[in-house]
Structures are given as C-alpha cells and as structure tokens.
Amino acid sequence: MELTNEISILKGIGKKTSDYFKKIGVVTVADLINYRPSGYKVYTDWVNIADVDFEGVFAIRARITAPLVKRTTKNQKSVVLCKVADETGDMSIIWFNSAYLCSVLKAGMVFVFYGKIKKDGNTYVMEHPEYFPTNKYRELTKTLYPVYSKTKGLSNKTIVKAISQVIESYPIETLDFFDEKFLNKYSLCDYEYALNNIHFPFSKEAYTKAKERLTFDDFFIFLSMIRLMKDSSRQIDNNFRIKKWSIAESVINKLPFELTDAQKKVFKELVKDFSGDYACHRLVEGDVGSGKTIIAILAMIMMAENGYQSALMVPTYVLATQHYKKIKGLFSNLGLTFNVSILTGHTKAKEKREIYEKLESGEIDIIVGTHALITDKVKMKNLSLVITDEQHRFGVNQRSMLADKGEMVHVLAMTATPIPRTLAMILYADMDISLIDKAPSNRLPVKNCVVDTRFRKKSYELIINEVRAGRQAYVICPLVEESENKDLVNVIDYTKMLEEIFPRDIKVSYLHGAMKDEEKEEIMGRFSRNDIQVLVSTTVIEVGIDVANATVMLIENSERFGLAQLHQIRGRIGRGAHQSYCIFMSPFLHNEKTKERLDIVNKSTDGFEISNKDLDLRGSGDILGTVQSGFLEFNTTDIYENADIIKKVSLAVEDYFGNEEDKERVFKKIEQRFGNIDSLKEKFLSSF
Ligand code: ADP
Ligand code: MG
Predict the structure, then answer these.
(1) pLDDT tens digits, residue range 40-51?
(2) How far apart are the first and last CA of the chain?
(3) What is the pLDDT of residue 608?
(4) Domain named Helicase C-terminal: which ranges (predicted)?
C-alpha cells in the first residue's frame, strides 16, 4: 500500500463508495490517514424527565410503567409505544420497526434510554432510543465513539472500516516527523499511537494524549511556514514617508469622544512607523468594541493629507458599508474634503468602472471594500497603506495581493482575537504588535445570568420589554447534531415558535451558516436598521456588525459552547450606552460541573482569563466537542485551548531551524504526508 494509492485499493471500497469519499475530500490513502473524526459520540449523564423541555439528544433513566403496545401507522409502518417514568415525570417512547421489543422490554424494568427527544404537541416523545442497563450505561459514559462528518451515501461505519484497514496495514510509524529523543524532550506520544487513539480512543486519557500530539504536528507545520515567511521578508524601506499629520491630530481633538490611552498610544506608534525609515507592518489587536475603527480612519487620514491613497478591506459587505458610512459621516461633520469610495461585489458595473478609473487617476484618496478590492482590474496611482479589518478572516495572500497594488506599502492589520501578547508574537511573528487593552470607559458592563430553562418565559419577557424600549435582541442556538441540516431546522423552527409567542409587530428573523452571502448580508443589514428586532442565529454572527442598539443576548443550550466562544458571542452586545443583558441558558444546571463552567463567563469579562479557567476546570481527562476546525485552520478557541502546545511548538521550531540537517529531514517527512512544501504553503496562505 502506497500513500499515493487511491482508496479503491482497500477492501470493500468500490467505485461508488470512493466517489462518496471524494465528496469529503478523501481520494488517496494519505488523505484517509489525515482524515479525523469531526467529533465523538459521548453518552452524557442522564437528566430528569421534568427538566426536558427542549428538543435534543438526551439520556433519561426511567422505569417502564405499562406493557409495550404495538401499532401500525396509516402508512403501514410498524411502531412500538412505551410509557416510562422517573421520580420527576413521565414520557412516551416510540420505536420504529422493532416489534420484537414487546417481548424484551417489560413493565417494571428500569433502563437508561438515550436518544432524540422531540416535541409532540404539548408533550415530549423520545424517538427510537438506544437502551442500556444502568451499570452498562455508566461504563459507556467513560468511552468515546468516533463520528465522522457525514455525507449522503457514506455511513459512519464505512468510514470506520476504511480507516481501520489503513491503520492496520500501513506502516504508520514510518510517517513520524520526530525521533524518540525529540518525542521525549517534548513529552509527546509517537505518531502511530496518536493516529490509533484519535480514531479509536483506548481511553479518554489516550485520546487526550493523541489529540495533543496531532495538534502539536499541526501547529508545528503552521509555525514552520510562518518561520519560512519571516526569513524571506526582510525589512522594507519606507517609500511613503509622511511629513505631516496635523489634520489627523485636529480630527482627534474634534471627535465626540476622547481617545482612550490605549488608542492614543497606537496612534503614536503609527506616526512613528509612517514617518520612519521602514515600511509599517503592524497588527492592532483589541477586543471587540475596543475602538479599532477610529485608528484605521486616522491612519488613512494621515496618508491622505500627504497625498497618498489607502485601502481598507473588510470581510463582509455589511461591514464595508458600515465603515464607509462612518467615514463619510465623520468627514462631512468635520468638513474634510478627502475623496472616499466603496467597492464591493454588489457595486453596479458602471459605478465599478468609474471607481477603477478614479483609483488609477488618484482621484480617490480612501477606498473601502471587500474582496472586490483585490481583482486585477483595481489599479491604484499611489497606494501607500493597506488595512485589513478582522484580519483573522483573511488569508495572508489576500492581504499581500492587495498590498501588491502599491509599491512596498504600509500594512496594518486589525483583529479582535483577544490572544495574549506572547501568543500573538508567535502566531504573527512577521509583524509588530499594538495592543488596545482597555475599552472606552463610557460603557456599562453587561449584566449576566446563568439560568435553567424555567427562566425561558422570563427571558422572552425581558426581550419584549427591551424591544418596547426601542432595543433589539439576539437568540443563539447551538448545532444540535453534527449536520448543517439540523442546524437549519433548528433556527428556523425556533424563529417560528418566537413568532407565535411574540406580539405581531415584533419582527423575528433568523441567520445560519448555510444561507447565501447576500441573504446573510440582507438580514444583517435589516437588523442593523432595526427592521428586525429579534435575530435568531447560530454562531455565524461571531464576526458581525456593530449594532450598538442590541442589548439582549439569550444563548440556548449554552453548555454546548466552549467558554471562549461564549465570550465572543457575548461581545455582540454591550457596545452602546444602554444597559445590556446576557442570559446563559441551560437545562443541565443541576450538573455541578456545567454550572461551575458557566459561572466562569458569568463572572468574568476577560477572554483569556475565561479560557484559562475553563481549561483548569476541564482537566485532561474530560473532553467536550470536536477535534479542530480543519487542517491548518485554527480559530480562537483552538488557539486558546492549545496555548501551551503552541508555546512548546514555537521552541521546537527554533530547535529545528537551528540545524539544517534536522530541518531537511523533518520537511521530507512533512512532504511525504502532505505533499510538497510549496503546495502546502499555498494551502497555508489561503487558510491563515
Ligand atoms: P472594534 O474595536 O470592535 O472595531 P469599534 O471601532 O467599532 O470597535 O468601536 C465600537 C464603538 O465605540 C463605536 O461606536 C465607536 O464609535 C466607539 N468608540 C471608539 N472609541 C471610543 C472612545 N475612545 N470613547 C468612546 N467611544 C468610542
Ligand atoms: Mg471592528
């Protein structure tokens, strides 16, 4: 078996199945080796029947209260109905095509039933659950079953079989990047062990060890790439040295608010960069709402007053429009005559042509836009500064493609990812870093509460009251199942339910990841104009707009989110002068651990502190959620959770880069596993 072989060489994989595998990006044996579970089935602790008042997958421990009944439905399906009860309430269970159960399950028996609970009129019904004796179930809660991202036609079982075959017959140990000495030095398990236990964890501890090793590998490749880039980017001469910045300073004096000390400091750093010997290459890091936009505007004003052009690139149409309007408004208030324009995918063709011309002639001083800015058609007369907002949403190559429209321009990147300085210096090793570490002082702190579902009615009342006072609200629902589809049903159903409960004049709408960009932007735009008062959403709003008028955030099933993620979600509110409220709701508050975790976000507003405490609490044996977002794709949560690994990796990379022989050897292994370094670099650049 070779890594480059197509997977059809495996037993039981014919043409049809390998086509399905293609859909999940698996073509070769190497692809299969690099494929990982998207999560694990975890048998959760059972809950009281009385506490089930939301659809989802639950375990209950209950006694069968009456003999099972067999029925045939209208469309000739055979079903078995069963009544169960625990100390807190009763519930119906339904099985499909399982008539044999009537002779197996008898009244009086006690089992743990694990399955999907659905609402049926006013009651809840558990559908086709698995059932276990109590002791057996207790055992199960200690193990993990791999779940792979599903695609139609390809079952989890088929994936499991294919992966087992490869693990059994390929000499996995030959793929290890590192030798024993290295593994010992960094206390890592070997690659073979890691691969076995990421798919089929022998125990939770083994899984943790495996995950740590594979995460180490991922960040090792990632940081090696950064290191390669850093080596190739020498210091660039400043071609756009500014001579004056008095207009920018006068703008600062005329703003409706005083800049915070942190903002003032960053402004000074920028003046120093722009007027210095070398081109500026800086990352501005500040938590959501810390006031980065004004910094970007001031930077662009400095360029404009020296006769240079600048470009501000943002990830979405809504954000672009928001920034553009803000700049226009500010300039007209202050009587500034610099020429500002906006260019996005939605700009009409004729208008686009005009903008291209004006950029080329130098008539436009400041251009705000989305990816539309990086097409070949955009040529600029004297572009001197490129700013990317929400930097973590752009690939490095997009940033540099925009920068290529000028001659060695200044580069300024803005991000809300609140990672501590030491980590930022590792992850953005090729940039200088400015921190905005204090938010403007005019804000009222968000009022938080952690509540169980009995509080749902009260929460709705709070939302209605706030809407009546002119404010707006978000409701966040988690992915109930792995599949996008379920997510979709979830927010749409929830929206329907709210529409029924809420007074007619309150407009409720929804947002989810599977919607088209235009649709998303349309909804976000309407929400920002207060045409929509309540927005039900999955976590797609994490990078969103600044709707200062939104003051309520209700997070359903908040126990299902990582704490860092909860902190990011909460960052959408508390951005204006009005008091904001964040409600962390969960049906599992009787579980001490869940309560303790949620209490962390309840009590703290510091992103890093939150994630650290979360890690402490979870310890090593306990696992939540999935592996990571994808190969060489890291989100904030990945970065938080792996802070210690990242630091370790950073040392390891230095080790390797110090010795040409070691470096060559490891790079050869990386190429063996992932293809050549250049194509890997491409992949890396487009995902960072
Ligand atoms: P972010 O850092 O998330 O991009 P913004 O730049 O959107 O934050 O700022 C959030 C809000 O705070 C905006 O409405 C902005 O006008 C306001 N703001 C920025 N700086 C200050 C300040 N120094 N004092 C008061 N409000 C400020
Ligand atoms: Mg911003």
Answers:
(1) 877 888 999 998
(2) 33
(3) 66
(4) 459-616
Reduced to 3 DSSP states, what percent helix, strand and coil does the chain have, rounded to the nearest 5? 45, 20, 35
Q: What is the pLDDT of residues 513-553, one digit of tens each?
A: 778 777 887 898 899 889 999 999 987 765 556 788 999 99
As a whole number of angstroms, the distance between CA 658 and CA 663 comes to: 8
What average pLDDT score do residues 130-154 get? 85
Does 412 sit in the ligand 1 pocket, CB within 6 Å?
Answer: no
Tell whether the model's pLDDT for residue 491 goes beyond 50: yes
Helix (H) or strand (E) holding 70: strand 69-72
Look up the pTM and report it.
Answer: 0.67
Note the ligand closest to the C-alpha atom of 568: 1
Pairs from 124-127 (Cβ < 8 Å, separation ≥ 24): 124/52, 124/53, 124/55, 124/91, 125/91, 125/92, 125/93, 125/94, 126/58, 126/60, 126/91, 126/92, 126/93, 126/94, 127/93, 127/94
Does any ligand 1 atom lie closer than 6 A to the CB of residue 289?
Answer: yes
**461 lies in which domain range?**
447-604
What single letter denotes the amino acid at residue 679? Answer: S
Nearest CA to ligand 1 atom 23: 259
CA 397/CA 417 separation, integer angstroms: 19
pLDDT given at position 384: 94
Distance 622 CA to ligand 2 centre (A): 35
Of the ranges 124-133, 303-312, 374-383, 627-636, which one carries the lowest mean pLDDT score? Answer: 627-636
Query: What tokens appear for 76 in the block?
Result: 């000739």
Give the separation between CA 229 and CA 43, rounded to whole angstroms. Answer: 45
Instruction: Give tens-digit pLDDT for 59-101.
Output: 999 999 999 999 988 878 889 999 999 999 999 999 998 999 9
Pocket test for ligand 1, best of 254, 255, 257, 580 (most atoms within 8 A of CB): 257
For ligand 2, the distance from its centroid to the CA atom of residue 317, given in whole angstroms, is 13
- Of 62, 59, 61, give the one whose Cα is nearest residue 114: 59
Query: What is the rounded distance in angstroms from the CA atom of residue 59 to the CA atom of residue 179?
Result: 45
75 CA to centre of ligand 2 in angstroms: 55
Same domain, yes or no: 106 and 95: yes
Quote the strand ranges of 353-469, DSSP E: 366-369, 383-388, 410-415, 432-436, 447-451
Residues 39, 77, single domain; the answer is no
From CA 226, how far away is CA 211, in angstroms rounded? 22
Phi and psi torsions of 256, nearest 5°: -70, -10
Residues 389 and 371: their CA atoms lie apart, in Å, by: 12
CATH code (residue 458) = 3.40.50.300
Residue 194 pLDDT exceeds 90: yes
Full DSSP string of 123-139: EEEEEEEEEE-HHHHHH
Specify the DSSP class assigned to residue 49.
G
Residue 634, domain member (yes or no): no
Q: What angle do CA 587, 593, 595 make, to 5 degrees?
A: 50
Q: Which of 436, 460, 485 corresponds to the end of one domain?
A: 436
Least confident of 127-131, 553-557, 617-621: 617-621
Distances from the Cα of 222 to the Cα of 25, 59, 415, 429, 681, angstroms: 21, 40, 19, 12, 9
Res. 635: pLDDT tops 70 = no
Q: Which residue among 577, 604, 631 closes a domain?
A: 604
Distance from the alpha carbon of residue 333 to the mean position of ligand 1, in angstroms:
17
Residue with more model confidence, 577 or 213 = 213
Asked whether residue 220 is domain-assigned, the answer is yes
